[in-house]
Amino acid sequence: MKVDGKDLRPIWLDEDLKTVKIIDQRLLPHKFVIADLKSVDNIIMAIKEMYVRGAPLIGATGAYGVYLATLNSPAKTIDDGYLKAECSRLKSARPTAVNLVWGVDKVLSAVFSVSGTSEKIDAARKEAEKIAEDEAENCRKIGEHGVSLIEDISRRKKGETVHLLTHCNAGWLACIEYGTATAPMYAAYDRGIDIHVWVDETRPLNQGARLTAWELGKHGIRHTVITDNAGGHLMQHKMVDMVITGTDRTTFTGDVANKIGTYLKALAARDNNIPFYVALPSSTFDWTLRNGIKEIPIETRDPDEVRYVQGMDQGKTIDVLITPESSPAANFAFDVTPARLVTGFITERGICKASEKEILNLFPEKKPAVL
Questions:
Q1: Which CATH number do you get for residue 262?
Q2: How far apart are CA 304 and CA 193, in angstroms?
Q3: What is the per-residue pLDDT for 371?
Q4: Which of 44, 134, 246, 286 has the highest CB neighbour count under 10 A?
């Protein structure tokens, strides 16, 4: 995507082929900083501390982590035991997003398909780069399919503004290019459709207020940042035409794990007869889980993310305590929205209902895996 006229991605391999470059998303929108990742430890730190976040980007980052593991092998040969151990460490960096395990395992499989140290390193690099490119292309296709939904609303409203609502950041910062939830928005804007986006602040880390608002603003899309609890009010007063979110893990039966607060948006949308769509590449489906509420692991993070808020003060980024100093806090990072509340999924293959039958019809090659 373009930022101030410059093509940018949130992750890329440096020309030296030894350094993974990332945008440090913790510091946006007030500071734009590129960080260098040179080891598996660096990759794990970046994932855990949310230099990078968003399911597709986490998967690509984990994939590059396997490449760095092959590159930095302590022995002249790349021992299978060493590589499996490094991959195990990578996969445990964050528990909810299924793309991390998917990306790591794909690169590991590519490495094990060849012999010879240089061949293994080359296979890891090529597979990691392919994952990044494929995810970018999948997001482009999500935009192409999803824009039809926005076009339909625009036609019904005779060209009046289409008001969309999104939660957290499922934009290109989270997905390498285009985004998932934002991909149809970018496509609609680029086609000249009049859209406006309500952007949930998304406490506690404010990925909506900091990142989605920054992205949309750079692209020229009209948007308004709102408190997380304002969505229901807007829906009651017919100020939202459609909700689109991303997801960190979705079962093949249609249950959706996404940033905490998504479930409440889905409830409000259902109560007000507003379509609630989830946009995702196929890499975010978990083809092994049936019951998302019972089976998807929900990450709990540092309570200080709730107790403190980050902001800009006289040119400096600072953290400010907002609770009584002695008050404890709980920080559940995700919740699960049951399939019954999801109008449909927007994927790289098209749009389907949130049901096992519809999902597997769109991805028939996965049917044997779920029997």
A1: 3.40.50.10470
A2: 41
A3: 67
A4: 246
Active-site position among 134, 228, 241, 248: 248
Beta strand 334-337 with 256-259 is antiparallel
Cα R_g (the chain), whole angstroms: 20
Q: Is 176 left (phi over 0), alpha (psi -120 to 50) or beta?
A: left
Give the mean pLDDT of 24-42: 96
List 247's β-bridge partners, or say none.
Answer: none
> For position 6, what pLDDT does the model report?
85
Structure confidence at residue 133 as a pLDDT band (50, 70, 90): very high
Question: Is the pLDDT at 347 greater than 70, yes or no?
Answer: yes
Q: Tell me the whole-structure pTM to 2 decimals.
A: 0.95
Q: Within this chain, do residues 175 and 310 fall inside the same structural domain, yes or no?
A: yes
Cα–Cα distance between 40 and 86 in angstroms, integer? 7
| Domain extent for 41 | 2-134
What does the angle CA 214 – CA 32 – CA 257 come to, to the nearest 5 degrees? 55
Judgement on whether residues 228 and 183 belong to the same structural domain of the protein: yes
**Considering Cα of 301, then 289, then 167, then 218, what sign does the dihedral take?**
positive
Q: Which of 279, 323, 283, 285 is nearest to 304 (CA)?
A: 323
> In this structure, are residues 138 and 246 in contact, taking their beta carbons and an 8 Å threshold?
no
Residue whose structure tokens are 């240089």: 118
Question: Contact, 185 vs 216, CB < 8 A?
Answer: yes
Which residue in 302, 218, 305 sits closest to 29, CA to CA?
A: 218
Is 248 an annotated catalytic residue? yes
User: Residue 64: how many CB atoms within 10 A of its CB?
Assistant: 30
Could you give the CA distance from residue 96 to residue 259 in angstroms, rounded to a whole number? 10
